[in-house]
Input
Amino acid sequence: NVKGSALVLRARSFLQAAIIWRGPYVPANAESAMGIPLRMSQDFNEKTTRSTLKQTYDQILQDLKEAADRLASTPLHVMRPSKAAAFGLLARTYLSMGNYDSCLLYADKSLQIKSTLLNYNTLNANNAFPFPQLNTEVVMENLIPVPPPISINRAKIDSTLYNSYHPNDLRKTLFFKSNGNGTYGFKGSYEGGGNLFSGVATDEVYLMRAEANAKLGNLSPAMADLNTLLQTRWRTGTYIPVSNVTATALLQLIRTERRKE
Output
């Protein structure tokens, strides 16, 4: 359990660094494109070298798969890694690589262990921060401290994004706080305060499974996952399930909802 937990934490950190600083994974040049430095030892005297992009992602996948073999399905507490969390991070990794078959496989494995969603109708939009930390959707906790320049009182939400929410979509009032001047700040963090959540949560895993299914032409299960998620986000009795859409339209809708989520 200790080693499995360590492997998850290392892989998560490598993946965050790779996504931020290396951009999209392109298989055609992955063996020649520069990846990130992979520090595999605690020896500070070891010379740092850059791996290739393929080596970077291979290491992330290796760490997470070994971790999944070692960890319990569910943790003693969501502050700790688990098999469900490793599967969720594998799905995130494969999605960033454009490998939809494997993304689907591991998103499904994660949701087989934990699939609970938070009904937003149970939350109070008048609260300064409506979402409780460690709520029922959290598979593994991870907090990002927010620097002052992008705090809730300074960073302004893109107006196009804000206006894209339907009035019956509860995220419009749960996620955003009016600044009183036509702009809005973000208050919807799953950290229950001003910091940001970057752990694994079931809402992301549902959307990953939906996107993978849509890309693979499995439209019915993709729509089912999208509808399962969105009915917990809209005011009770107002959500109209998605049906009878083309693969292209469904994929765009899933990605739009991912941004809105």
